[in-house]
Amino acid sequence: MSYGEQIALRTQAELNEVAPAALVGVRSAAEDLFIERAEDQFLERLKRGDAAAFEQLVAERTGDIYGLLFRLTGDAEEARDLAQETFLRAFQAIQKFRGDADLKTWLYRIAINQARNRWRWWRRRRRDATVSLDAVAGEHEQTVAMRLEDANASDPEQETLAREREQQLHQALWGLRGAYREAVVLRDIEGLTYEEIAATLQINIGTVKSRLARGRIELRRKLESSL
Hints:
By secondary structure, the protein is an all-alpha fold. 77% of the residues lie in helices and 0% in strands. Helix 2 (51-73) packs across helix 3 (76-93), helix 6 packs across helix 9 and helix 8 packs across helix 9.
């Protein structure tokens, strides 16, 4: 076998090794394109008033929206009511959806506006309310679940202490200004990025970070004063 033939065989062998990896990249790009097209088609169905598409949206997003509203209001019945109102408003406004954010962020924006409106309604009627949240983060991105995690959770005394600490956290969180509470909930409970929070609240990222930082500081002060 000549030297040239050896080089050709080696080159072919290397190509055979590289080809599968290259194909993986091609498939990944193709899959991304397929997903993007599927999302566009789904959005078009929503805008055409396709009932099946809207039912799919509700089925896929109800859990997220209800969870967010429950954490903002602390009332299961009210959260369910607001979730229904959120999807109704979404159905009515879908034609105005410009695609500057994804559907989840857009729905979160509607849900938060509904919660704000409800809070203003209750405040006008001087109703006292207590928000119960199942998680809140401190300055180091810790959730309530992480902070309350205890190796001795099976110990009744430890469980009682954990519940008391959690209640203090809930009360402190409710004592925050609405803007701070929204930022803390969206970042530390819902896990949204700064960009997603900015899109949801329609504010810039700098304002998101400022509200989150101030909210955490105020939360810590309230906790310290309650201990």
